[in-house]
Amino acid sequence: MNYEQGKLVLITGATGHVGHAVLLRALSAGYQVRITLREPSKAALIRDSLPGRDHLHRLSFVTVCDFTQRGAFDEALQGVSYIIHIASPLQRPAYTDYNRDIIAPTVQGTSNLLHSALNHPTVQRIVITSSTSAILDINPTNNLPLTPSDHPISPTHRHPNYGPDFITTSEHAYIAAKTAALNLASAFRAQNSPHFDIIHLLPGYVFGPKGLATTPREAISGSNVFGIGLVMRKGSWRDWVVEAMSCHVDDIAEAHVNALDPRVAGNQDFILSVPFRPEEVKSIIRKRFPEEGDMVKEGIFAGGNEYYRWFHVSYDVSSSEEMLLGRKLRGIEEQIVDSAKQVLALVKN
After folding, report:
1. Sheet architecture: strand order including 8-12
2. Residue 254 φ then ψ, to 5°
């Protein structure tokens, strides 16, 4: 891809699984990168995570304490050419106020960012991390999709915003928030005809190494729990119903940065998601790590005797593979192998 080296990119969510991978790729591509942080103290964590010190002179930080405050991004967008907006609360059982903890930061944060960008003529493109959850029609009684699966769902598909009756769990709040944020950005583009274009990336569950993880437990926090976590958890999945569609963290990171290339037409969206079966995970570990037999029998990978309920959805990923990656998306085997390598390294170190 043809990168406009030296241009300034603002990245939100760089301390997260996807965000950190995007940060590393953006720096490697030659961009100047400015990171938003809610807590300035995390700047040292980011700096120390970089491989070597070659990129430090192109990395800067800006504090944005509350995305829901009007004008929150005004200072952060000074001189910025591109924005990669990844930050968004994940579903967590500990959340009790779903609007405060999940919906408002996701939806109002997106709105504030877009409206601030209107006042900064240097901004050329905004890439927003959405989710396949934003375009599915989910039955709240059993968490299965109501969306017909006889034809692949395209990136242009939209689902109406969910009402308050749907939002009874943190999982449903996450789905509702992602749906509303995607619809808001689409409406914003239609109503304001901004000087910048907007691209959405819609991944399934993101599996793969977590750049800031220091323990196996940290490595499977977030979406990895549904991947490599299948052979690490020993508890019951109870009523979990999971869309068994995933994306390698390196694929989604590469797609974010490649989406900045001006040769990629703006104002379009891309799905990155491939199907997997939960029972594949333990088979992959046994096949690819035969020397780690003890780990599978009684060690870190001794779980995986129970699986969550799951379903597949047919998505059209052709534009992602053709326009953003130039190849097929990595499958579940690469996703799990790379996750396992990190876990083993953390255990042995």
Report:
1. 59-63, 32-37, 8-12, 82-85, 125-129, 197-203, 269-272
2. -60, -40
Distance from C-alpha of 28 to C-alpha of 6, rounded to nearest angstrom: 11
Threshold 0.90, pTM exceeds: yes
State the total domains in the chain: 1
Tens-place pLDDT, residues 12-33: 999 999 999 999 999 999 999 9
Give the Cα separation of 222 and 17 in Å (integer). 8
Query: Cα–Cα distance between 6 and 23 in angstroms, integer?
Result: 14
Neighbours of 265 (CB within 10 A): 9
Residue 2 lies in a domain: no
Predicted confidence at residue 51, as pLDDT, reads 86
Angstrom distance (rounded) from CA 40 to CA 46: 11
Nearby residues of 309 by Cβ (< 8 Å), 6 or more positions away: 237, 240, 241, 242
- CA nearest 327: which of 261, 268, 255, 249? 255
Which range marks the domain in which residue 90 is found?
A: 8-348
Q: How far is CA 240 from CA 182, 202, 226, in A?
A: 25, 22, 10
Confirm whether 1 is domain-assigned.
Answer: no
More confident residue, 180 or 147: 180
Which structure tokens are listed for 261?
A: 């290339």
CA atoms of 142 and 209, how far apart (whole Å): 31
Whether 235 maps to a domain, the answer reads yes
What does the pLDDT read at residue 91?
64
**Looking at the DSSP assignment, which residues form a beta bridge with residue 275?**
245
Question: Does the residue 285 lie in any domain?
Answer: yes
Count of H-run helices and E-run strands, the chain? 11, 12
- Residues across the chain: 349
CB 136 within 8 A of CB 145: yes
Looking at residue 55, its pLDDT comes to: 86
CA-only gyration radius of the chain, Å: 20
Summarised one tens digit per residue, pLDDT across range 306-319 is 899 999 999 999 99
Query: Which CATH number fits the domain that encloses residue 200?
Result: 3.40.50.720
